[in-house]
Prior knowledge:
heterodimer, A: Rossmann fold, 7-stranded mixed sheet
Amino acid sequence: MTNPLDASRRRSLAQLSALSLASISPWALRQAAAQTPLTIGVIYVGPRDDFGYNQAQAATAAEMKKLPGVKVVEEENVPETAAVTKTMTGMIKQDGAKLLFPTSFGYFDPYMLAMAAKEPAVRFSHCGGMWTEGKHPKNTGSYFGYIDECQYLNGVIAGHMSKSKKLGFVAAKPIPQVLRNINAFTMGARSVDPKITTTVIFTGEWSMPVKEAEATNSLADQGVDVFTMHVDSPKVIVETAAKRGKMVCGYHVSQAKLAPAAYLTGAEWNWSTAYKTIIDAAQAGKPHPNFLRGGLKEGYVKMSPYGAMVSDAAKTMADGIKAKMIAGSFDIFVGGLKSNAGAVVVPKTLKQTDPELEKMNYLVEGVVGSV
Amino acid sequence: MHKNAVDALLPVAALIGALLLFGLFVWLGGVSPVETWVLLFKGAFGDWFSWQNTLTRAAPLMLTALCVALPARAGLIIIGGEGALVLGGLAAAALPYLTPLPGNLVGTTLLCLAGFAAGAAWIALAGALRQYRGVNETISSLLLAYTAIAIFKQLVEGPMRDPATLNKPSTRTLEEAIRIGGILGSDVHWGFVIGVVACVALGLWLALTARGFSVRVVGGNPRTAQLVGLPASALILLACGLGGGCAGLAGAIEVAAVHTNANASLIAGYGYAGILVSFIARHSPFAIVPVAILFGGFGAAGSLLQRRLGLPDASVQVLQGIAFVLILASEALRGVDWKAAGERFRRSMQPREVPLSSTVKPT
């Protein structure tokens, strides 16, 4: 028979000794610190359920909530103004956040950089910014994915499925990240049939549903039968194209639910790889990962499952290229590549990691449109 | 005196009503209304941090609200303040391209003047179209706002683009020395003070000066104004110019205090939010100050509500919607003689003698 008093005394003794052990061992201390949850703040420029850019981030944030020792606070529809400065300060001061993910491109400079200088104990991870060693603070960093790989595969599928040989691309702005996707998509399609062209329309806005619908309709009128896009929320384009009886390749997240009969496949972000790396480093007290980039191989991007209508020939070819991309033996921007104005724009083959690709300012042969 | 107190309490009562309704709304969604109310207050006015948050958000709204209020006092409904704001911001960012600026207060003042001039010209254009060509100013100012945004983008993404800004086309960044900083080390920038000063100064101008009075006469009845020999068109253009100038100034301040250059993020809807602020303030420049602060408070509180309770951003817009509808509706109660209304109500409750003939059905 055990005396309950005795047992409790023994337990408190054990606790006491554990406490004294903890105080002398930095390892134990770190363990204790890990038990107070790490609060991370995620900031979105649009709504969390936009079937696009913000949803891709929000889905990952929801996944991170399930990690042990992680607390997530979120705010959506935060414009790239003083409002984001206030949101970041609020997350740090009111919620005790130690790691922030300001996910919109425009948050980087000046807002996030200024905040990072003021709050050196807080880590900041930005999506897509060009973090530069020596120029930007060590407690900041950026993550991004080579989603042009998926857009290339989108192009391969689109090239197989198109009957009119005319593809359509509804794009926001003629900036490097967007041009890279248009070019990769076009090259993927032209690897199937060099007669294929991609007509591009720039709406000038990251989110402007009216113009996106107009652009989709006008492209459909011109005979385009497969669409893809690079805007914040592809919802309207996918729905409009499906209504017109055309096919689509998605972007950011899967829009298959919106148009199951029209959705061929899609280029999706897979941010959990990057988020986990960054959160692990913060929990373990390791240096902040400043520059994270990856493609299919690293698990930063992924393809939507193929729609039922995609032909076997298309699947086989796309899967073959995908395997090569994952093995690292496939280059999209090969030497001798010409712009649609006829000039050689890529004299020597460029690897995905080449910073030259982040400065892209041309459309390749086969694209109908101008920057 | 007693009547004034009732009138002043009307918007407060409307706000309380809105909070109660919003409490019911979140309660239906399974969130504790009490916790929501506490967080709303804490987020907007709970401590110094919240106050800074609220005031920072309020700063641009005061100036864009003036862009609606001043023309409204002259009888025009201008809703294109967004256009004046972006052009004001563009002008401020463009000035260093044209001429080197002194790196001190003079340089900052010149930036602000450039913004003011651009905004003033834009809204005066809408006023002139109405006075001289008979174009409806509400429609023309709105369409001019789209034109202004198109001009802004064309220049920022074209000739004025800083080639170093790859994925976010922007103009060249303003030098640190000519930017606008925080007030005494706080996060609230001097744009807030400029906004308050502008509201008070223009309020006094309308109330006390002969020119301000003339503007109000024109707004009250342009025919009468012309009959007594007031230059109606000139006064309307003046009101439009001053209002547009304020919105342009807001753009310049946003560029100099927040964005540090002109880029598409400047188009954040402050011009449109200003319409709401001005209407709630009944186009009184003095009332714009508290209304803008209330609006800023909603923004700040909404931020905390999202982070703490996981409510979507739309829920705060619901609160804002309820609040503003109730405030506007409460205007209908202004000047009501409550004693007489009570008497009427009491009488209506008493049983009335009903003429016999009406109760008997003819057979």
